[in-house]
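[PROTEIN RECORD]
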Amino acid sequence: MTHCFSVIFAMIIGTVAAAEDMRLAVTTSFDNSGLADILIPEIKADTGLDVQLLVVGTGQALRLGAAGDVDAVLVHSRSAEDAFLAKGHGTHRREIMYNDFVLVGPSGLGVVATITDAMSALAMIKAPFISRGDDSGTHKAELRLWKAANLDTDEFGNWYRSVGAGMGAALNTASAMDAYVISDRASWLNFGNKGNLGIVFSGDPALFNQYAYLPANPEKGENILHSSALQLEVWLTSDRAKALINGYQIDGQPLFVFNATP
């Protein structure tokens, strides 16, 4: 009898522990930045939530949210986020932090005033270029930049290579090939294999990169832990999160700027 009670008690405790777990789909750029390693242990300590990260591109993260396979997503593509909400896959959108995209490459492009000019210059000289090609937020941003320059990637030659992989893999490929690539600034600063690469263009308002948190619609699946997702949102928009996010730096350079509103 005592053994049976112990087994039942262990099952109950296991169920309670599992209820404190939640699944969060995040972008590879968020993970590559190193910020996840800072935040996840503090979330656990402050809230008891054991946040399990699924590291994918923004497109895949939103598909996981739409299918009810995660409790929330943290992504960076406003148009895709708006479409996600319009289809009823999420309950709301909350901005958390931002940084910017940068054009990384082996050398400068001469005098260019805008990122549109820079992208046009790359296409003109057919400079080796690495594309994420993975439907991520960074990939979507890159395609938007080519479009703004009135250029169609379907018409590019073999100087333009799609790797279908995360930010780290794309940066490694660019480093090996002395090629250009669009990266979020945080991933670039945290990247160790820079080789001959450096930031060749930045600062254009078109390179602004907002990260947002979207809880999945609990009607999408009975296993969605909506209360846990809301609890995490409270923490991500707190002064505690603000201090950690703004305080995360590499070589004195901040990787993200907290901009969540109360």
